[in-house]
Specification:
Helix content: 10-25%
CATH topology: Dihydrofolate Reductase, subunit A
Largest sheet: 9 strands, mixed
CATH architecture: 3-Layer(aba) Sandwich
Enzyme class: oxidoreductase
Low-confidence stretches: none
EC number: 1.5.1.3
Function: Key enzyme in folate metabolism. Catalyzes an essential reaction for de novo glycine and purine synthesis, and for DNA precursor synthesis.
Structural class: alpha/beta
Pathway: Cofactor biosynthesis; tetrahydrofolate biosynthesis; 5,6,7,8-tetrahydrofolate from 7,8-dihydrofolate: step 1/1
Radius of gyration: 16 Å
Order of helices and strands: EEHEHEHEHEHEEEEE
Mean pLDDT: 97
Distance between the termini: 16 Å
CATH class: Alpha Beta
CATH superfamily: Dihydrofolate Reductase, subunit A
Shape: globular
Number of domains: 1
Keywords: NADP, One-carbon metabolism, Oxidoreductase
Length: about 180
């Protein structure tokens, strides 16, 4: 059994939408700061975190933010050689989630592993034996979306409180949302 625990992190609206036309349907600065903090913070200053994403998610990150700073960026794709030639040096390209987990296991400088999308990568991570928690920002509004977060099976996941995650209502402009943490049972 792997020592790696996969943490999924996403923001979804009422219809579980997470994106439209390759972008976020909302603009929430505090929520984006939460994402950055959660995926970046480490207890051991000698270590860093890894973020795992599909190639489409990689492409949707604005150029000025790629790769995500201070984290090992791992891009999953069926076209490894083609994508390796396109991404900046230091970005790791893997054919699948199992290979990414093995890669992380063989490094001793990675503290936490975060899966950041898209839909098929979230689904694969939720079904993976290494899945630990889902950090889901639940936006209390419906947006038109073409990309969705997979359904969370309440028999396999339990809502929990976590010390570093506020369970208070968050408000930005006219948008209300909650930070939720689901632990895989």
């Amino acid at each position: 059994m792997s020592k790696i625990k996969l943490n999924l992190i996403a923001a979804a609206c009422d219809n579980m939408g997470i994106g439209v036309n390759g972008t976020l349907p909302w603009r929430l600065k505090k929520e984006m700061a939460y994402f950055t903090t959660m995926t970046s913070k480490v207890n051991d200053p000698q270590k860093t975190n890894a973020v795992i994403m599909g190639r489409t998610t990689w492409d949707c990150i604005p150029l000025k933010y790629r790769p995500l700073n201070g984290r090992v960026n791992i891009v999953l794709t069926h076209h490894v050689d083609k994508i390796k030639a396109e991404v900046p040096e230091g970005v790791v390209v893997m054919p699948g989630l199992d290979e990414a987990v093995k890669y992380i296991e063989n490094r001793d400088d990675i503290e936490s592993t975060w899966v950041i999308g898209g839909s098929s990568i979230y689904k694969a991570a939720m079904d993976h034996p290494c899945c630990g928690k889902i950090y889901l920002t639940e936006i209390q509004k419906t947006y038109k979306c073409d990309t969705f977060f997979p359904s969370i099976d309440k028999e396999n996941y339990q809502l929990m409180d976590e010390e570093d995650v506020s369970n208070e209502k968050q408000v930005e402009g006219d948008i209300t949302y909650y930070f939720r943490v689901y632990k895989k049972l």
